[in-house]
Specification:
The complex is a heterotrimer of chains A (about 280), B (about 80) and C (about 350).
Chain A (H helix, E strand, L loop, with lengths): L15 H27 L8 E2 L5 E8 L5 E8 L5 E9 L7 H11 L6 E12 L2 E5 L7 E8 L3 H4 L1 E14 L1 H7 L5 H13 L5 E5 L5 E8 L16 E11 L2 E13 L2 H18 L1
Parallel strand pairs in A: 4-6, 10-12
Antiparallel strand pairs in A: 1-5, 2-3, 2-5, 3-4, 5-6, 5-7, 8-9, 8-11, 9-10, 11-12
Chain B lengths: L1 H32 L8 H6 L1 H6 L1 H16 L7
Chain C lengths: L11 H28 L5 H29 L4 H4 L2 H24 L6 H7 L12 H17 L3 H6 L2 H9 L1 H13 L10 H28 L6 E2 L2 E6 L8 E6 L2 E8 L2 E6 L13 E3 L2 E3 L6 E2 L16 E7 L2 E5 L12 E2 L2 H4 L1
Antiparallel strand pairs in C: 1-2, 2-10, 3-4, 4-5, 5-9, 5-11, 6-7, 7-8, 9-10
Classes of the chains: A alpha+beta (about 280), B mainly alpha (about 80), C alpha+beta (about 350).
Bound molecules: protoporphyrin IX containing FE (HEM) and FE2/S2 (inorganic) cluster.
The site of FE2/S2 (inorganic) cluster (FES) has 10 residues of chain C, from loops.
């Protein structure tokens, strides 16, 4: 180095040779930064098409049921026999909470049970992949109207036993998955899904078939009890469920057998036993 | 899991103590522990606030030591 | 130092530096956000913000960590080192956005305090596939936080240089935590190998740079000086040292800088009191040895910073025989005045 060229930060100007060198460095750095930005932005997985109508309140009229999860059945036109057909809209609460609390508060306020009654609720819709859910938030004054009389709900409950099934999939929280978050599934979202489910949002099993189509199941215990806490360790990871499946209108509910929820590892399933026995053999 | 809650509460408590300390320290102690503080700028005082809140125990020790030295100055200082 | 503290001692170079940091950050964020919005239109604002800031911060972290070894390999990189702390604080501010928004998005509005939720939602600390990667990010963020809030020289003095330097070495732990945070987090979800390739290339580059710079230092330190007499070792010829410059010699594990200035040779400890900068690569300016890293100054004859500053380094004895420079590696107490060795006209020829 030339004796004259010495760099000190507190001087007003750096010597020429330093300036040229740093300029070269920056000229290399600039495209690197841009290329990284482009690569990283473009290689992200495509986000789901879920929608959360944040800030928009919609009134929905339907018949309220508390089981298997709080929901309202909404008339959706007529089926081929001329009977009214319904879609089931599961209800969820504000933030990472289920709807049970809000509904219980409203029932207390009106001093009646909403079960089987026609009710008009105001809330925020979220939907994706043919499923519609609604957020009811106590702060939105969600109860618009509730009829005094019970509706004859026998026909509505329209349940159909589908027998015992075994399915593999991922447990997600439907609020994030069907609308609020991108991605609302998988490892990055795992903590959030657990927090939502522990907060009372009903767990949903997402099953992807060979064609890449997805089916969704509500999961509850063998006797219809909530499984929110029981699934904590099984959220956002591959699981296998053994359960009695019951079609409940347009949703299928899985009544999970005791011990019917297991982690599922592709590697272990296909290679695990071989490796394990090989390992044991080697040890011997 | 109460362990996490206990640890986090302890940290929060420590930091609250730090905030109280920092208010008093900025008013009275700061200029005693480091002479570079004399004539320092406002920006400097603001920029060190988060550090004072976190490292308040270390600063407190220095402050106590500086006070003692004012009462019995060490020999070499004369 | 003994002068009054300022928040930032602005000068022209620092302003240019900070504008460049700002420009690069805006450019990256704009590229990432705009492209995501165009090609992945179902994005949410939160996710784009979380991802744009996190990836930018990791890029800056790589730049920061490469500056040290780069300046050791080529001194022309020194202007990058001189305001590295601005880069560090910038990185912290950016990653704070990522961390806060992640905690808000993934942990708030639930049935548990968000910070408690961070550690209690996913408790699979024993599994790689399920590992709670957010906790790793949290600890890395704490380290960056501690570094950012202590970046002012006030803290270097008041925490003591030793504590301060130890704290700032934790950046390597933080880097490791970040790599694991990414590997055990988003990489397990994304299917495009670009992410893992970029992450591994980054780590590989950093490790290589550190190894190259490290081996050079070790080589310099391992030179063996054979000729000894009366505790002195023969280190070089007078001609080898330029006027107002120094050469660094590592004798008996002591790194010593031998300066030539004003017709004399002086020896001082090579390690700057500020942040261990190499004084032997400095220059005598206005009669003071000036550290090449941030410009701390010391008088060659006694190793003391000129008033009002208070730093002191050890001094050593040098002598000249013929044209040979002999150095005694026994250190005097920091700030001890030594006469130096006079270069007579005969020696110089
Ligand atoms: C409180 C601290 C932190 C939390 C809670 C946190 C949380 C998260 C979460 C949830 C993701 C996945 C987001 C997604 O869906 O894409 C993520 C990704 C990531 N984090 Fe962090 N993080 C924290 C700190 C850090 C720090 C300190 C760094 C590095 C300097 C960092 C770098 C990254 C990177 C590079 C990614 C992958 C890109 C992305 O998905 O955003 N994080 N973090
Ligand atoms: S290391 Fe900072 S001035 Fe020497």
């Amino acid at each position: 180095m030339n004796n004259e060229e010495f760099y000190i930060g507190w001087m007003g100007e750096a010597p020429k040779s330093f300036v040229t060198w740093i300029r070269k460095y920056l000229i290399v750095l600039l495209p690197v930064i841009i290329v990284l930005g482009v690569l990283l932005a473009l290689s992200q997985k495509k986000f789901g098409t879920g929608t959360f109508e944040f800030g928009t309140l919609t009134e929905v009229k339907g018949i309220y049921f508390n089981k298997p999860v709080p929901n309202i059945k909404v008339v959706d036109g007529k089926n081929i026999f001329g009977n009214e057909s319904y879609i089931t809209v599961p209800l969820i609460g504000f933030g990472k909470h289920g709807a049970d609390g809000v509904i219980a508060d409203l029932e207390k306020e009106k001093n009646i049970s909403f079960e089987g009654k026609e009710i008009t609720l105001k809330g925020t819709l979220l939907y994706n992949d043919g499923k519609l859910l609604m957020q009811v938030d106590g702060n939105d004054k969600p109860l618009v109207n509730v009829s005094g009389a019970n509706i004859n709900s026998v026909g509505l409950q329209n349940t159909k036993e589908l027998g015992i099934i075994e399915v593999k999939g991922e447990i997600v929280d439907p609020k994030c998955f069907f609308g609020v978050m991108k991605p609302g599934e998988g490892k990055p979202h795992k903590d959030c899904a657990i927090r939502c489910i522990l907060g009372g949002i009903p767990p949903v099993l997402k099953v992807t078939d060979e064609k890449g189509n997805q089916n969704y199941y509500l999961i509850v215990g063998a006797n219809g009890e909530k499984m929110n806490e029981a699934v904590q360790d099984y959220v956002a990871t591959p699981v296998e469920i053994n359960a009695r499946a019951v079609a409940y209108g347009d949703w299928i509910v899985l009544y999970v057998h005791p011990n019917g929820l297991q982690r599922y590892s592709y590697i272990q399933q296909h290679f695990g036993n071989k490796t394990a026995s090989c390992g044991v053999a080697c040890l011997k | 899991m109460s362990t996490v809650t206990v640890i986090l509460s302890a940290i929060a408590l420590y930091l609250v103590a730090g905030i109280i300390f920092t208010i008093i320290f900025q008013l009275k102690g700061l200029s005693k522990i480091d002479e570079g503080v004399h004539g320092s700028s406002w920006g400097f005082r603001i920029i060190i606030i988060p550090g004072c809140i976190v490292f308040w125990t270390i600063l407190l020790r220095k402050w106590i030591k500086a006070n003692k030295e004012i009462i019995n100055p060490p020999k070499e200082h004369a | 130092m003994g002068a009054s503290y300022l928040a930032v001692g602005w000068n022209r170079q620092k302003k240019i530096y900070d504008w460049l940091i700002f420009g690069f950050c805006v450019l990256y964020l704009a590229t990432f956000v705009v492209l995501t919005a165009i090609f992945n239109p179902d994005y949410t604002f939160e996710t784009v913000l979380i991802r744009a800031t996190s990836t930018l911060a990791v890029i800056i972290l790589h730049v920061i960590l490469s500056i040290g070894p780069l300046t050791r390999i080529n001194k022309k990189f020194l202007p990058l080192l001189y305001n590295r702390r601005h880069l560090g604080v910038t990185m912290f501010c950016i990653i704070l956005v990522h961390g806060s928004f992640s905690i808000l998005q993934f942990h708030s509005l639930g049935n548990e305090n968000p910070f408690v939720s961070l550690f209690t939602s996913n408790t699979h600390f024993g599994s790689l596939a399920d590992f709670p990667f957010q906790a790793l990010g949290f600890f890395a963020l704490i380290i960056f936080f501690l570094m950012a809030i202590t970046s002012h020289d006030f803290w270097l003095h008041n925490l003591s240089p030793k504590v301060w330097k130890t704290l700032h070495m934790f950046v390597y732990l933080a880097y490791f935590l970040v790599v694991m945070h990414v590997m055990l987090g988003v990489i397990q979800y994304e299917t495009n190998p670009v992410f893992i390739i970029i992450m591994l290339t980054g780590s590989f580059t950093l490790i290589t740079l550190h190894l190259i710079a490290g081996t050079r230092e070790v080589k310099k330190d391992n030179v063996i000086y054979k000729l000894k007499q009366d505790g002195y070792v023969l280190v070089c010829d007078i001609k080898d040292i330029q006027e107002d410059r120094a050469k660094m010699f590592c004798v008996d594990a002591e790194r010593i800088a031998v300066y030539k200035t004003g017709g004399k040779l002086f020896a001082v400890n090579n390690v700057c009191k500020h942040q261990n900068g190499p004084l032997g690569e400095g220059k005598v300016i206005d009669g003071c040895i000036t550290c090449p890293w941030h410009g701390y100054q010391y008088l060659p004859q006694n190793g003391q910073s000129p008033p009002p500053f208070k730093e002191k380094v050890s001094t050593y004895d040098v002598k000249i025989e013929g044209t040979h420079v002999w150095l005694n590696p026994k250190a005097y107490a920091e700030g001890t005045e030594r006469p130096g060795a006079v270069i007579s006209v005969v020696n110089a020829e």
